[in-house]
Amino acid sequence: MHQIYRCQYLNHSDQEIIGICLNPSCKQTRQYCYKCLMDNQLHQNCRNNFQKINQIEEVIQTKLNYLEYLQYQLSQKLKVLEKAWLNWMTELQQEQAKIVKILESLKNHNFFLLKQNLPSVIQFFLSLQNDNNHNKFQKGLRLAKSCDLLNAIKIFDEILKNDEKYPDCYYQKGLALMKIDKKRQDYLQKSVECFRKAIEMNKFHFDAYKNQGICLFQLEQYDQALKCFTSAITYGIYDKECLLYKAKILQKKDENFEACNILDKIINQDSQDLEPYFYKGVYLIQVEVYPYIIQKSMIRHRDVLIKLLVLIQIMFKHISYRVICCLSQKNQMMLEITLIR
Ligand SMILES: [Zn+2]
Ligand SMILES: [Zn+2]
């Protein structure tokens, strides 16, 4: 250890190291002593990058302090945000309860109750007179919900003309576009663009990542879609649809081992869910091993199973299947699908 604190140069061995050369392209011994400092032949082009040990220490300590400061700030911010978020949620719930009540009083022709809430109704209508983006957005949402997608998109476009920085508006427009017709490439492509803008403005937009992935999947741009699902999954929110899509893409890319790992993750969450078994089965059929699901769950999920079998038939048109249900020995979910070529 002491070795390093003594200069390595000939005739400098009695000298203590006082600093380090931090020139990135320096090829000489990095540490220097007082004699090195005096010798013009050594570190000729490095003098500006000479740093004393205590200076380096100071700079690093400063950085450390700054990191501690940032962490403190971040944890404080989290507390404030958490509190504000909870308050906001409570406010929304209170408003919702009030509006539900008003709506009920209208439906039941309970005008006494309606009269009691009249100040809120008046307030509500006053706020609607304002032709702002917020009101327009609400209208767009309502139209989209009632499947009047083209008119919803018109409204979203109007909003975006006034305010280009409205991530949720892009997101909703994207959703509406993809709902019009899942087979229309031009709509899907436009949706992808909308979701991209939403993510650009709000990189925590989990749903935008997910739906962008779904559009890209429909467009058969599997590598791009995979990136979206992977980004969405990194947020740590369990979302079966996201995982399932990722598994399907991996299967298409012949990365079956990883795909099965993902399907197992879904099965671990809910062992009664038949869909992951189905996709695992699709792979297993491909390698001519038989997928299994227990008879008990067969009875319980008869309708789902029939759908699955139809799906299997669609996917493997050239093969016909005879399905034999049987109980498994290991009490696992089992369905034996026998191949008949
Ligand atoms: Zn030296
Ligand atoms: Zn140097």
Automatic annotation (TrEMBL):
Signal sequence span per UniProt? none
Q: InterPro entries under this entry?
A: TPR_rpt (IPR019734), Ycf3/AcsC/BcsC/TPR_MFPF (IPR051685)
Q: Does the keyword Zinc apply?
A: no
Q: Where are the TPR repeats?
A: 206-239
Q: Could you tell me which Pfam families the record lists for this protein?
A: TPR_1
Q: Which UniProt keywords apply?
A: Repeat, TPR repeat
Note the PANTHER family from the entry: CELLULOSE SYNTHASE OPERON PROTEIN C (PTHR44943), TPR REPEAT-CONTAINING PROTEIN MJ0798 (PTHR44943:SF4)
Question: Know the name of this protein?
Answer: Tetratricopeptide repeat protein
UniProt source species? Paramecium octaurelia
Higher taxonomy: Eukaryota, Sar, Alveolata, Ciliophora, Intramacronucleata
